[in-house]
Write a structure and sequence with these properties.
Elements lengths: L3 E4 L5 H11 L9 H4 L8 E2 L2 E4 L5 E5 L2 E2 L4 H11 L10 E9 L5 E9 L2 E2 L3 E6 L2 E6 L2 E6 L2 E4 L2 E2 L4 E5 L9 E3 L13 E6 L6 H14 L4 E5 L4 E6 L2 H15 L4 E2 L3 E2 L2 E4 L3 E7 L6 E9 L6 E5 L8 H12 L15 E10 L6 H18 L2 E15 L3 H10 L3 E2 L3 E2 L3 E9 H4 L2 H8 L5 E11 L3 H8 L13 E5 L2 E5 L27 H27 L32 E5 H7 L1 H9 L1 H19 L2 E6 L10 E5 L2 E5 L6 H12 L5 E4 L3 H9 L3 E3 L1 H22 L1
Helix pairs in contact: 6-7, 13-14, 14-15, 15-18
Length: about 725
């Protein structure tokens, strides 16, 4: 095949964009001319190429912007100092793009780096901390807009795979590790303004589709306000996004004024205490919050003895710390550069449930932030400003006005260069100003340099109007129990009501290296007495003073006979059976195999099996599916033939729903729960319910099916 290559001209813009977005199969909006042409005139020479096949059809485009100086030296250096990566013997591939075809099928573009990828091969990975395994249904080799199906591809080949729904750009498959995806952290947030009458949820789905294709686009749904926000780096991306939505989905949108994405941190260590003790619930958590160096992010650790708090509860606390984006108390901005360490905690042998530690953990973090000295952070740019020599004074004055700093200017024959740092909030509109006062001869290059203390923190805090004590989603107060009822204790008074001491912040008295054994025993005895006295004070503060009868020990104990059991006085109520749907699906081999191909099919098969089971056993069967990670899920309860099917709401797990139901009905009715979750089994036993493991329940279902078949055959 012969190819014809010619330089790109402005007249080719429409043909170029049509090929990139609709015909290439691997193009993104970053290769459109609208995005490539944002550089000021004269900065680069456009050396882009148009590649045509022997039939005259456009087969490829090559974006290139050159200054035409130093190119030969660069190519020579690359050839001299680089070498190809060694080929892998085992199968390995890396995802570099996600797109959709004309029918809306998700295409995962990957390059095989080793071994061989065959059609219907099972690929696995991890997304958002959750493992996944899916089949490669089709292997497509594209040529322009057309493709051919193949049975296998080898090292160095590129193809589009259907059937993968979790893989993202940069994901490594097989022996290939995940790539270090360049992180373009957005610093500006814009509200998406939809046309009147437009479906906001449909628009959100379209934006999420673009976000999946381009990871550098961040889409945020504000559930409280019912608004869509996009987080970008600047107005150029905003214009590209607007045109892309109009071209692909016919959606004409506008954007509100952009806002800066602030963050918060603390400047001093502080202990936070969280207590959650409504009636029949109990958990207390002590956390140490420490500041970290700039750019460290959030870190979590545990420094608690197992004899004080069981290891399972410690892992649960760390899980709750990692699962949530913690907000600061100044403006409600995300928290960063903080290490949170579990110091100590306390659980109840009977009344503690998993959700109790979630509440105590969140409240401990919040209480510590309320006590600590917080600091507002804002994003800063590292800039390089090139202006004509006659404009250098104006440029230096502007940088100082924008609260920035710079090194001494480097002057040349015609231009001068300034390098330094400045806040994003003051410099966001400065590129257009540079073009204006330099008449197109100046150039400003901006690079995100991370977060630094905000230069006008008080002004930003006052403008935000955030009141942390009124944030009901992030409470800092704790809940205690007294006289059989729970009551709320303000965050400032929690330490006077807490039940355990971490020892943090208290100076330990120095003692000599050598100490006599009698003295150590005496001190230990006094310490025991002091602990007993403290426990007695806590008990009396919670349940009231203890009234003892001094003569009770000398009175004989009167034994009473047990009354006779009368069966007729007991109401015979139907049995309640709660089934943890996903736990059963992944525990039964036949359902687990089906779930790897279609999770919906596995759910339907389990529902049909339980319908037959319920028809024979005549129990009240409730099947619970976990929708904890489904964004915006309101939860639903539906009747499927003769069983009840429950889909939990967002932020509610199936375990939480089952715990609540067994707590409500377990004392008056016979309740069984089918699950293999060890922690869940312990909790439901405390509520008076009976547990059935997934294996035992499988045997029970099979036995019922045998009895049904025998009954049907006998009738026949």
């Amino acid at each position: 095949m012969q190819w014809t290559v010619r330089p790109y001209t402005p007249a080719d813009e429409a043909e170029w964009d049509r090929f990139v977005m609709h015909e290439s199969g691997n193009g993104t909006f970053l290769q459109t001319r609208n995005f490539l042409n944002y550089h000021p005139a004269g900065r680069f020479t456009d050396a882009s190429l148009m590649v045509y096949n022997e039939h005259g059809g456009l087969g490829a485009v090559v974006p290139a912007a050159l200054r035409l100086d130093g190119v030969d030296a660069l190519l020579e250096g690359l050839d001299r100092y680089t070498r190809p990566a060694p080929a892998l013997h085992a199968f390995g591939a890396r995802v570099f793009k996600v797109s959709q075809d004309e029918q809306g099928t998700r295409l995962t573009w990957l390059r095989v780096t080793g071994g061989e990828l065959k059609v219907k091969a099972l690929l696995s990975g991890e997304a958002d901390g959750e493992p996944w395994a899916e089949k490669a249904n089709q292997l497509r080799l594209y040529s322009g807009a057309k493709y051919t199906l193949t049975e296998a591809i080898g090292p160095g080949q590129v193809c589009a795979v259907t059937g993968l729904t979790h893989a993202k750009p940069g994901t490594g498959l097989g022996a290939e590790r995940d790539s270090d995806v360049p992180v373009l952290e957005p610093v500006l947030s814009y509200q998406v303004l939809l046309p009147e009458g437009a479906d906001v949820h449909a628009a959100l789905g379209k934006l999420h589709r673009l976000e999946e294709e381009e990871p550098q686009l961040h889409v945020v749904w504000n559930e409280t306000l019912g608004e869509i926000h996009v987080q970008l780096m600047g107005e150029v991306q905003l214009e590209v996004l607007r045109s892309l939505l109009a071209e692909r989905f016919g959606l004409e949108v506008s954007f509100g004024p952009g806002g800066i994405l602030y963050k918060e941190t603390i400047t001093e260590p502080m202990e936070g205490v969280g207590h959650y003790e409504p009636l029949r619930h109990y958990a207390e958590v002590h956390l140490l919050l420490e500041p970290l160096p700039r750019g460290s992010g959030m870190q979590f650790a545990a420094d608690c003895r197992e004899e004080v708090l069981d290891k399972n509860w410690q892992r649960l606390v760390l899980t709750h710390l990692e699962e949530k984006q913690h907000l600061g108390v100044l403006t409600g901005a995300p928290l960063t550069d903080v290490k949170i360490t579990l110091l100590t905690g306390k659980a109840h042998l009977k009344h503690t449930e998993g959700g109790d530690f979630r509440q105590a953990t969140y409240r401990a973090v919040r209480q510590g932030l309320m006590l600590a000295k917080s600091q507002l952070l804002e994003p800063w740019y590292a800039f390089r400003l090139e202006v004509p020599v006659e404009n250098i004074g104006r440029a230096m004055s502007d940088i100082q006005r924008m609260e920035g700093s710079f090194d001494p200017p480097e002057s040349g024959a015609e231009t001068a260069t300034l390098t330094g740092f400045a806040p994003v909030s003051t410099m966001r509109s400065y590129p257009m100003e540079v073009v204006s006062y330099t008449r197109g001869r100046g150039h400003l290059s901006l690079t995100l340099d991370g977060y630094r203390p905000c230069h006008n923190a008080q002004e930003v805090i006052a403008e935000s109007g955030y009141q942390p004590e009124h944030d009901l989603d992030n409470p800092a107060d704790s809940v205690f129990c007294a006289h059989g009822a729970g009551f709320v204790v303000p965050w400032s008074e929690v330490r006077s009501h807490m039940h355990v001491e971490s020892g943090w912040g208290k100076a330990k008295p120095a003692r000599p290296e050598t100490q006599a054994a009698p003295q150590r025993r005496a001190m230990a005895y006094r310490a025991t007495l002091e602990e007993d006295a403290e426990l007695l004070k806590i008990f009396e503060r919670t349940y009231g003073p203890i009234k003892r009868d001094p003569l009770a020990a000398f009175r004989p104990v009167q034994k009473t006979e047990r009354p006779d059991f009368a069966a007729e006085q007991w109401e015979i109520a139907p049995e309640y059976l709660l089934v943890d749907g996903y736990n059963i699906i992944f525990a039964w081999d036949e359902l687990n195999a089906l779930a790897k191909e279609s999770l919906d099919a596995a759910r339907r098969k389990l529902m049909d099996i339980l319908c037959n089971y319920q028809g024979y056993q005549k129990c009240v069967l409730i099947l619970v599916f976990d929708a904890y990670r489904v964004p915006g899920s309101p939860g639903a309860i539906e009747q499927y033939h003769n069983i009840h099917v429950v889909y939990t709401k967002e932020a509610e797990t199936a375990d939480m729903f089952i715990e609540r139901v067994t707590h409500e009905i377990g004392k008056s009715r016979r309740v069984r729960v089918a699950t293999s979750d060890g922690m869940e089994q312990v909790i439901i036993l405390g509520h008076g319910a009976l547990r059935v493991s997934a294996r035992m329940f499988h045997e029970e279902v099979q036995n019922v099916e045998k009895q049904i078949r025998a009954l049907v055959q006998g009738q026949a």
